[in-house]
Design goal:
This protein is of the alpha+beta class. Helices cover 46% and strands 19% of the residues. The termini are close together.
Amino acid sequence: MATSENLIKKINNGDNKAFRELYGSDPAELKRNAKRYTDMLKQFNSAFGSRDIEFFSSPGRTEIGGNHTDHNWGRVLAGAVNLDNVCVAGKNDSSVIHILSEGYPRFDVDLSSLKPDKKEHLTSAALVRGICSRFTESGYAIGGFDACIDGGVPKGSGLSSSASFEVLIGAILSQLFNNGKVDPIQNAIIGQYSENNYFGKPCGLMDQTACAMGGLITIDFKDPSKPVVKKVNFDFVATGFSLVITDTGGNHADLNDEYASLPSDMKAVAAELGAKVLRQVTLEQIIDIAPKIREKVGDRAILRAIHFQGDNQRVVDQVAALERNDFKAFLGMVIESGYSSYMYNQNIYPVNNVREQGVSLALALSEIVLKGEGAWRVHGGGFAGTIQAFVPQKLLSKYIKTLEHVYGKGSCHNLFIRHQGAGKVEL
């Protein structure tokens, strides 16, 4: 634990090793983040009083390979990015958690009851309560704390702001009450449990794992209770390409049914083959049974099952390409994955609003600028939100200008993969 005065000295206007690892070497970006941290400290002291506190950071994540494969026990390739949720927190010696998040009203979670509360459905309070419940069920300690959070992972950006928030809370509980002993993967599993059972949204485990672990990782969910996580050693910076995420806008609020249809369609096909999920069947089996099940499950479900099988294998091939430093082959597979999501998985625009196709248009613009030079695909859940592109430096200015011409200034985020996952910031 440290005092506010000591932490401000260690921040040193952004000139410190911890910040360079989290946010890169751009002086302007370092100063911007230094201001975030010092402003949070002032807010904390004003709201809760000065005491011993710690800084925490939890990254957003970018999905690089494996679109909608995790919920059917498949493989993914993902990376933690430099946009993060940061927090200053300290114990309050009570059984209540107080959280003040920039731009949102303060909320409190009384730990005397850890049962789901219907009034908290789809709220941050539900996530916190669910995480605390699972911590105790897993044998970990919990307690009251005060926290101020600055959300640097934009909501609806496809960078998993909710998963980043979940594992941030887990990291705080781990550090403040369990001496940092909670394993990152366990933290991710707890976050997913809370989102599924308390918040009320079905989700896989990729987002939480990528945010909790940090770096570039591939995850195999063949046994979802024990996902196999492997670090991938590849230096994206050395390629001369930028990883650009573009926020195309669109409202995620009415898309829960669309998101829920993806795992249910896939699992419906698996069930016809006597399996629980698509990871337990083969493409050949799906094609063989297709004529018999078209009317029962629908053609879209079969197409989504075909997408799963293709993207699940593509992750293996992408990792192999990166490990042998064949970036050109990797880029080709990014494009293949994008086409598969569009044609087979069909998560590019909602079926009930075909007039609004922000993701489709962004993909078209990306192909116009990058064809033969880079790669592009839908990013994350789809239907609205973001796309991802790997852009060579010679086209970076043109690409951002083209996309921001349509989606507005600041809609493009030029990112890098950061190594640290959710945890205490060691200033």
